[in-house]
Specification:
heterodimer; A: outer membrane lipoprotein receptor (LolB), chain A; B: alpha+beta; Multidrug efflux transporter AcrB transmembrane fold; Alpha-Beta Plaits; four-stranded antiparallel β-sheet; 10 strands; about 60% helix
Chain lengths: ~220, ~800
């Protein structure tokens, strides 16, 4: 699958920055997913490309190719709570959650008003530190099982971030993917929005496309 | 005038009391303002520039929490720091923070770039701590920023959110540190703390020192006037005028600052002078003319003292008003408030005191001559006068020599605007500041904002050059800039020895892509203090380990020199820059207020003495005192600061009285037919005592300042004693010596010609000598001495 992503970050004072990237993803065996991201805008980072290997059980791996420096560098970070491209989204927000990392349960009002309200608490303090929050509450439409909104709680038990799912894209195999979502940092007032466009599902991409060597081409 | 006062005595008293009660009732609404930047006008360039930078990058005033222990790298200490850091991160009054748990390590190994927290997990064994120590020493964003090189201290630095009340944020931080007490000793410092402690201590000083000054004044009045009934009259003027004046502060929308704290003390020290003269003279008249009715006595009292008191008051007001030319806002406010207070005290003394005396009538006890008790004082003054008359040239020469010696000390006077030094050395704030300055690069900052295309390599290299050069400047602790981050990234991208390693790339695209690289693993807030989101503004933050004025001037000059070649708009600001402007304001304000006060006093003295030469001679003791004061400050290292800068104007205002009184009294003797030498001696023995006691009264009032919690105010207390002492010596030694040596003509003219026009004939047996504000004052001796003078 491929598509174009517009990621805009807006400061509380209205200053904003927009990145436009193209992304091509392919799923492999054992839940492995690989993504190639190429920067389209702004002009000075055009050509910068990334390879992300989204491992199911171990830390993600990332390589970035910097054309102006003619260098490829691998970026290692085990922090899932770390910001995705300096936005309010974390790396964890960009991929499917690992269910075993959380204790999930219904909240009292879950099931009413056509929605499930699911509380997800990291199984350990280490996991909490890794994800960067103490609790997540997801509001899921009980009709179509789509997440509408997520609230993230800090270690003081206060909401510090929300993600609103604005629209979803239904893929050919009947699954849903988020098309448009907005993350709001309630502490800083900063917002980030991701908008997918030009989504093409039946793109045939060779496995060699998802290699470091391909980045440098 | 007498008829008016007697007729409307109750109205006058009620109006005076009502004025004091109405204005005094506003005092509890007074607010304090410890913010030094508000001391200088908002239009001053340093404030304008700082505001521009803070609009973009937030307030740069840092709160610093310092943890100290013999070894800070222990599990217990790190747990304590982590707990406090975590709780502080949740405070809405904090915008950003740097701690051992927020600093990241950008590293490169085997083709990988890592940007992970310095401390992911608190080590559990010795090996882990050794590894952590090495990481700290090798991390330029950690070493001496969050952990000191000697591993004895760690810090959490937080910038405050100006939208939240600073006092609340400080209170919350205090609560957090209190809640997590551990093995490490915790100190809190930084400008927000300094401001809050200043605010607290200003209030404490006001609550402690003002009553103490009042008690001191009450004791002095009791000592001078004898009975309580007489004491109450001038004391009531002190209380009422001080209350009315302090009520003006909230009424005018002003706030209490460390400087305005001096206003009530000035008033307490000065406001009773006129009342003392009146009551003492009244006691004297009751002794000498017991058959007069109260009305006649009051009339005589006003006739003989109103004009000298008016002159005395006017010269004091003129001297104090010299502060209006000061560029420091609270200094101008002190000028307005103290001058208004003295005016109120003057009016109350001239209207309310005669009214009170009339009402109380015989209730005021007659003064008791204290000849026997104070004989030694007479002997001393007589001997002094004898020596002066005999060797006037020698006395003048000694004054010239002393003045020249002290003049050489003026060049050593330094300016001090560092608020840290307002606190005594063992104060917790001062200890924290010392720790911050010696181990963590200082808490006071200079900010340079570069507005342009930050990704342009020429601009980035300019920022890098600025960072490197300023870091080498003496007194600079740390310098933070986006170029340092770019260099760190280059180290993660290139290998040591490879072109590009630890360098600023030479293309815009390369820099932009480096930032993208960092964005993949860093935090959006990592650089928010160093560069804006659009990459159009960069911020170089310079922390000063020695926030002295000379250091700040040097750094500023270096910034101007280096940034000249950067193709971008440069804005230089920050608290430290505001302080240098404040320092130059102190100098300019000192000079202008001094000149204006001296000039005004010269004009007034020329009018009072009806001679420009007389005015010049009368101004001499002040000029000498000013030289002695600054020379003393130079030799002892007492700096000119926000408080001590007010001294010279206040000294001129208060000290000029002595000369007027002495010359006036001298003139009375000359007019009576005594020679210059005889008049010098007679005046010394009569008015000399009053002047000395008057001077000691003022000194006693100001002496409570020595107990202030602020070093600067304490120095003010010492210096005011020295300067009033110098004025006293000028009036009682230099002026008599000049009169005896040069016999200037102005001193023999009839100075009272138009002043005593209302004096009734036949009731002036004492007037020849009393005139001055004189005599007055401390009746007993004055009367006895005057009698002897008359006999002579």
């Amino acid at each position: 699958m491929s598509g174009t992503i517009s990621l805009s970050i807006t400061e509380k004072n209205g200053a904003s920055r927009t990145r436009t990237i193209s992304m091509t993803t392919k799923s492999f065996k054992d839940g492995l997913e690989k993504r190639v991201i190429k920067f389209l805008e702004p002009a000075d980072v055009r050509g910068t490309s990334m390879l992300v290997v989204d491992n199911r059980d171990v830390s993600d791996e990332m390589w970035i190719y910097l054309p102006a420096l003619k260098k490829t560098r691998r970026i290692v970070s085990s922090e899932k709570g770390k910001s995705f491209m300096s936005s309010e989204f974390s790396n964890a927000d960009m991929s499917s959650p690992t269910l075993s990392d959380f204790m999930n349960g219904h909240l009292p009002n879950s099931g009413s008003d056509n929605q499930w309200i699911i509380e997800s608490i990291p199984v350990s303090n280490d996991k909490a530190d890794e994800y960067g929050y103490s609790k997540k509450v997801s509001y899921i439409n009980s009709d179509n099982y789509q997440v509408r909104k997520m609230e993230f709680y800090n270690f003081d038990g206060e909401i510090f971030k929300t993600i609103d799912i604005k629209s979803m894209h239904r893929t050919a195999d009947g699954k849903y993917m988020v098309k448009n979502m907005v993350a709001t940092n309630l502490l800083t007032g900063r917002k980030s929005e991701i908008l997918f466009s030009n989504i093409q599902e039946q793109v045939k991409v060779d496995d060699t496309f998802f290699t470091v060597q391909n980045l440098e081409r | 005038m007498t008829e008016f006062i007697i007729k409307f005595r109750w109205v006058i008293i009620v109006v005076c009391i009502a004025l004091a009660i109405i204005l005094g009732s506003l005092i509890p609404t007074s607010q304090t303002d410890p913010e030094i930047r508000n001391y200088i006008p908002a239009t001053m360039p340093s404030r304008v520039e700082t505001d521009k930078i803070e609009n973009e990058f937030g307030v740069q005033d840092m709160v610093m929490i310092i943890f100290t222990d013999s070894s800070i790298l222990t599990a217990e200490n790190l747990q304590q720091i982590k707990a406090i850091d975590r709780d502080i991160s949740k405070l809405t009054g904090i915008t950003s923070r740097t701690s051992p748990f927020t600093v990241r390590t950008i590293s490169s190994s085997k083709g990988m770039m890592e940007a992970d927290p310095l401390i992911r997990r608190i080590p559990s064994d010795e090996e882990g701590f050794t590894e952590l120590r090495d990481e700290i020493l090798n991390n330029q964003f950690a070493r001496d920023i969050v952990v000191s090189s000697d591993m004895t201290s760690a810090s959490i630095t937080a910038t405050i959110n100006s939208a939240e009340p600073e006092s609340l944020t400080i209170h919350k931080i205090d609560s957090v540190t209190y809640a997590h007490q551990g093995t490490a000793k915790v100190l809190q410092g930084g400008l927000p703390y300094i401001r809050q402690r200043l605010m607290r201590d200003v209030k404490r000083d006001a609550i402690f020192l003002v009553p103490l000054a009042l008690i001191m004044m009450l004791a002095v009045l009791k000592f001078s006037l004898g009975e309580w009934k007489s004491v109450v009259i001038p004391f009531s003027v002190v209380v009422l005028s001080t209350a009315a004046c302090m009520g003006l502060i909230p009424l005018l929308g002003w706030k209490l600052s460390i400087i305005t704290l001096l206003v009530p003390i000035i008033l307490i020290a000065v406001a009773n002078n006129y009342g003392i003269y009146l009551v003492a003279r009244y006691q004297e008249l009751r002794i000498n003319r017991p058959s007069d009715s109260v009305k006649e006595t009051v009339k005589e009292l006003l006739g003989s003292l109103n004009m000298p008191i008016l002159f005395s008051g006017l010269t004091t007001i003129a001297g104090i008003l010299g502060l209006l030319s000061h560029s420091i806002i609270p200094a101008r406010q002190v000028g307005v408030l103290a001058a208004t207070g003295v005016t109120i005290a003057l009016l109350m003394s001239m209207l309310m005191i005669p009214a009170l005396i009339y009402i109380r009538g015989n209730g005021v006890k007659k003064g008791v001559p204290a000849e026997a008790k104070t004989n030694w004082f007479d002997i001393f003054l007589s001997r002094l006068a004898g020596k002066i008359v005999k060797f006037p040239g020698r006395f003048i020469t000694v004054f010239i020599v002393i003045t020249l010696v002290f003049a050489s000390g003026i060049t050593l006077v330094r300016i001090e605007t560092n608020q840290e030094n307002f606190f005594p050395k063992k104060n917790a704030i001062r200890l924290a500041s010392d720790a911050i300055n010696t181990k963590f690069g200082g808490s006071q900052t200079i900010s340079v904002m570069i507005s342009g295309d930050i990704k342009d390599p020429v601009v980035m290299q300019g920022i890098d050059r600025l960072t490197g050069e300023v870091k080498k400047t003496e007194g600079v602790g740390q310098v933070f800039s986006i170029s340092l981050a770019v260099r760190e990234m280059s180290k993660a991208i290139f290998s040591p020895g490879e072109a590009g390693y630890d360098q600023i790339p030479d293309s815009r695209e390369a820099i932009a892509q480096m930032f993208e690289l960092y964005n993949m693993s860093g935090d959006p807030d990592d650089f928010s203090q160093l560069m804006n989101l659009e990459n159009t503004k960069a911020h170089v933050l310079i922390r000063l380990s020695d926030p002295g004025n000379s250091v700040i001037r040097n750094v500023r000059a270096k910034i101007a020199e280096i940034t000249r070649d950067i193709p971008a708009e440069i804005t230089t600001g920050g608290y430290a820059i505001i302080m240098t402007e404040f320092a130059s304001s102190v100098i300019k304000g000192q000079l202008s207020s001094l000149l204006i006060a001296l000039l005004t006093v010269l004009i007034l003295l020329s009018i009072i003495f009806r001679s420009v030469r007389g005015g010049l001679i009368g101004t001499l003791p002040l000029a000498v005192s000013i030289i002695l004061l600054f020379g003393f400050m130079g030799f002892t290292g007492i700096a000119l600061d926000a408080a001590t800068a007010l001294l010279s104007s206040i000294m001129i205002g208060v000290g000029v009285d002595f000369t007027i009184q002495y010359v006036w009294c001298f003139n009375s003797y000359i007019r009576k037919g005594l020679t210059y030498d005889e008049s010098v001696t007679a005046a010394m023995r009569t008015i000399g005592r009053s002047i000395i006691i008057n001077a000691f009264t003022v000194m006693a009032g100001f002496s409570v300042l020595i107990l202030s919690g602020f070093t600067s105010i304490r120095f003010f207390g010492y210096l005011v004693i020295i300067s009033i002492g110098a004025c006293l010596a000028g009036a009682l030694i230099l002026i008599p010596a000049i009169l005896a040596r040069f016999k200037p003509g102005f001193a023999s003219r009839d100075l009272k010609r138009k002043i005593n026009y209302k004096k009734e004939k036949g009731k002036n047996e004492n007037e020849n000598i009393t005139i001055g504000v004189t005599a007055a004052a401390f009746s007993g001796i004055g009367t006895a001495a005057r009698r002897r003078a008359d006999n002579e």
